[in-house]
Task: structure prediction
Amino acid sequence: FFEIGHLDKLKSWLSWSWTYICAVWFAMVLTMIYVLRSPLKLQDTLTSASVFLNTLTPKFYVALTGTSSLISGLILIFEWWYFRKYGTSFIEQVSVSHLRPLLGGVESSTTTGLFSSVNGEAEPRPSVSECKVWRNPLNLFRGAEYSRYTWVTGKEPLTYYDMNLSAQDHQTFFTGDTQQIKAEDTVMQKAWRERNPQARIRAAYQAIEMNHECAAAYVLLAEEEATTITEAERLFKQALRSGKREQRVQDPVTTGKDINLLVYIKRRLAMCARKLGRIKEAVKMMRDLMKEFPLLGMLNIHENLLEALLELQAYADVQAVLAKYDDISLPKSATICYTSALLKARAVSEKFSPEAASRRGLSTAEMNAVEAIHRAVEFNPHVPKYLLEMKSLILPPEHILKRGDSEAVAYAFFHLQHWKRAEGALNLLHCTWEGTFRIIPYPLEKGHLFYPYPGCTETADRELLPTFHEVSVYPKKELPFFILFTAGLCSFTAMLAMLTHQFPELMGVFVKAFFSTLFTPLGFFADKMESFMPSSFWHQLTRI
Result:
């Protein structure tokens, strides 16, 4: 330990002194150049260079500055495009990735190190799951909803990355647990991987021809081929019957994937009932599913239940569900945090007035509502702009990133109507949500009630959301230095080119005056060096 401590001190001393050593070395180089100016014939070189520059016509300077402006403008355009697409500067990224190791720098390793918790103590931050992509609990039906959007607008609401994740989910849930894969299961495995929807549908019919009780094939047809929710519900009921019959004839040891399939089918049937207006039936199906399979909490069926209960305006039941799932030991979501804020805001929002609150102060109930809103906004700061309709909504993706823009789109798409139904709730949100950012000094370094906001959400959201949607970025990124620098350089050189073309003589006088002023301190320093050192000393140095 003693040797390690001394080694660290030595390294810190060397890194501290390196700056000053470089400065001394630079000063010595300048001094040697000045001393050796006669043997190196620097004066003659400078004289010949000045004569050559004086013979150049103003057209040369116009071409020089114009070319510089054009090149810097092209760099500016590329840098701006790269920043808009990837959120960083290309020159800065290359400098950090390639030049820093050559200069002896190291990458910062604090991103996965110790972070401050709410009580101020250092604790390890989980870096693996902070940008994990989750299945959207309320994802729409491809054939009955996503395809309709494509027919009307001609735009694809789902990205290939999102659909590929869904294919992996289906393979894992429906065909990944069998020890002896059947022929129809092999066909369905290929069907989920097909990129073309028609190829997937043809593969599903092929699997049904092999086995009329292939539940996974009916699931695919319900998701992709059905053009209405009623038709999708009919196919899901057929899949449920086939799945139950298949489960009865199989050995109980090999029914793991059948259980996953049945849970998926029952959940989608409940969602069909919810979309067709049979909300109480949907709530009962969801409650039964949660009682029958309590260990499948990762499917987040309670979020479907919360949305259905809010539609029924059964706020007491919503509070009971939140009491179970809004626990400090359980993972949070925008649905949990914002539903909790909605219930507390609903209790005070009808009579809330910003002017009255500023005069008399906030009551206890109003303070609780504001704190709940601040908590929700800290968890996902993208949601309020969609709820307040400051940003346009799109169809939610099939997968979401918690605390990201994709989760905000998915939450607001289904829950905006519930906030509008609570009178004054959106007004309270509008008055208080921006106050959250005054509580958090800098979200990427230190959180308040949650871990610091992850910095990888923008990249993942760009993969999940379609290209026609403008991804919400938090915290707002400032323009990189190199974009500002190239913009200034382009503008400055373009102005010089224009002025040189219009006023060549005046610009010549200005340039000469500028350089004479620039080199005046160097001349003053040289004169002082001549007067300070004896001439014989300089003569001996030049001879050496």
